[in-house]
Structure formats: C-alpha cells, structure tokens
C-alpha cells in the first residue's frame, strides 16, 4: 500500500480533495482513502445508498473536489449524461473494465486541462498496476490500452513457456511488483496455480 500511495502518478494538487464513493471492501478504496490522507489531502464522503447524478455533482462543486475515481461503467454514465459536474475537477481516474474512449474524449474536450487517467489492476496486485492518462489535445484510441506499469510494478506478456513476447504478439499477461499479494487464504492449490515464479526475479501473478 505504501508503494502504491507514493507512486509518482498521484500529483499533490490532484489529491487535495478526493471524492470517496467506493465501499471500503472494494480495492479502489485504497486509492480514495490512502493517497489523499498520506499526502495531506482531504476526503469528501459520498453518503451511503443511491445517489443521483445531480446530488453527486452538487457535492463535487460544494466541496471543490479535485479528484474523482469511478468504475468504468459509472464513468461512462457520468461523462455522457452530465459532463458538466466535473467542472473544477483536476483529474478523473477510472478502470475495472473496458473504458469508453468516447467518454474520455467528451470530458477532455468539455473541460480543457482536465486529466482522465485509466487504470488496470487485479485485486491481487493492490488496486492499480498500470495506468495511462489523457488530456485536452491528446489522441484517444478507439480501444483504450491498459497503459504502462506504475512505480514498483511490472507487467509482462509471455508465451506458454514464460518467454517474453515482442510487441503485437498475443500472449498472457503477468504482473508483479511491490503490491503483489502472498496468495489466497486457505487455498494453496489456487495460489500455486496463479502466483508463480517470475523468470525475471521474484514472483508474479498470472492474470488469465
């Protein structure tokens, strides 16, 4: 968690006032809670239960929220139905599924200077493993990539013999780094199957 919180992707000005809307049992809460707190920022808490788009926007405006993290599905809905609620927000981060390229374009065009950061990472690697950001003027590809490994994280596309594959060749994604879990509690067989020795040192997680 410490390595994740101190990643250079998280700018100090972005973490000033972060909207907390993830359940604490959801790994995205690692970002929403610890990144701002460790960096001297504030948490803006969304009330429990169903929250309308209008209410969410009012909270963002009233508390001058600087960063919002939303799952890919929620991000698409907010960007398409109410892009105006992100006025004043410095960065929006999203992930957990395929991120809508059109939603990214809508936000960066509507709010010049806003950064949209897409993230990828299974729970087994502590929230996010890779990221890529877009802002006004950037080209957003039709199929958004998962981006580049974050600090203290590594990502490899390997063949069935765990050999590194060149760009453009289909293989299996493995991830490694400081955030890698030890395994699954009480499930030694599954742990041995998914957490394997890394040919480049240490252990890695087989994403499947």
Explain what this protein looks like in three dimensions.
The chain is α/β, with parallel strands linked by helices and 208 residues long. It has two domains: 149 residues, ANL, N-terminal domain (Rossmann fold); 54 residues, Luciferase, Domain 3 (Luciferase, domain 3), CATH 2.30.38.10. Helices cover 25% and strands 24% of the residues. The chain is built from six helices and eleven strands. A seven-stranded mixed β-sheet has the order 2-1-3-4-5-6-7, with helices on both faces. A four-stranded antiparallel β-sheet has the order 8-9-11-10. Strand 3, helix 4 and strand 4 form a beta-alpha-beta unit. Helix 4 packs across helix 5. It is globular. The protein starts with a helix and ends with a strand. The model has no long low-confidence stretch (mean pLDDT 94).
Beta-strand portion reads: 15-25%
Q: Strands across the major sheet, in which order?
A: 2-1-3-4-5-6-7
CATH architecture of the largest domain: 3-Layer(aba) Sandwich
Form type: globular
Mean pLDDT: 94
> Radius of gyration, rounded?
18 Å
The major β-sheet equals: 7 strands, mixed
Count of discrete alpha- or pi-helical segments spanning 4 or more residues? 6
Enumerate the spans where pLDDT stays under 50 for 5 or more consecutive residues: none
Number-wise, the strands total 11
In oligomeric terms, what are we looking at?
A: single chain
Distance between the termini: 24 Å
Number of domains: 2
What is the helical fraction, as a range of percent? 10-25%
CATH class of the largest domain: Alpha Beta
User: CATH superfamily of the largest domain, called what?
Assistant: ANL, N-terminal domain
Protein name: NRPS A domain protein
Domain AMP-dependent synthetase/ligase: 9-184
Pfam families: AMP-binding
InterPro entries: AMP-dep_synth/lig_dom
